[in-house]
Please model this.
Amino acid sequence: MTVRELAAALGLGKTTVADALRESPRVSAAIRERVRAKALELGYQPNPIASAFLQQIRSKSSPSAQTKGNLTLLLPWSDSHKELCRGAFQRAWELGYAADKISSEELRSEQITRILLARGVLGVAVTPLAVPIGQLKLDWSRFASVAMGYSLARPRLNRVVHNHLHGIRTAVEMCRSRGARRVGLVLRQESEGRSNGLWSAGFYNIQRELPAAERVAPLLVSDADYKEASIRRWMRDQRPDAVVFHYTRIVPDMPEIASGRVMCAVLDRLAGDPFPGIDQQYARAGAMLIDLLSLQILHGQRGLPEAPTITMIDGVWMEPAMEAAAPARRQGGSPTARGRRASVSPSRQTPSR
Model:
């Protein structure tokens, strides 16, 4: 069925129907709803590639890298996940798509859907939400979709995730290779949620493989109880030679760590961080988001998957000395997090995958 045939069935002009399908404000809400209902009734399916191409013509955008259509990254706030965006935008350009970003925290769900439809967006990538376990209510039937990380609990989309089990095992093994026998883990509830419990699960599994004298009980606390005093009590009780934290900003400013008497590593290391840790390869993950969207678009897949899949990206161990010896590499995350130390009180930070 064509737009012309749909317009004839409704007794409306072709232009009016086309504008209604695009959610154009030039058409009243009542007409838009009437057109959508009739389209569903008659089984009308727009050609997404053609729609996106026409949208580019209307906007007078350059066709050089926009011939296949538009993709959008939904971000928790506008300045987050810069390295993730860089990898995604680069890959979109290589595949012939245009890509942009929308702040999912500043708009209501219905507003986001209207914006996506008005821009002729074919695919949506949801980056980690501001909360560790959240939901996003869009009209998913209109788009190819994929999520980054575990924070989008509902709906269940295909995902690209950091390999948390590989990350925690690598961090512990690297600490032990530097002489630490008793390696501990400190996580708050927010970090546990973002890793889907995999960091602590991996750590417990490692502990089972160690001699009893080298086992360390992890410190897993609520966000409210994540304080320097509780970490000090835990360190006195467990006597770790090394401690693994989520990211640099929540490492406490303690003499034992500052002097190096207790080794420190982080599971989400950014460029310029003073501690060694896992580079989560944000740019690679961003590129993979686009690859998965492109594949769905190629096969005409829209809406929620019946059996969601997970694609894992292994992190890479990185140390300040390695970073200084090589050309500076840009890392993802909130720009305010780079190379800074702060108290252990929870603060607004680009969510980890």
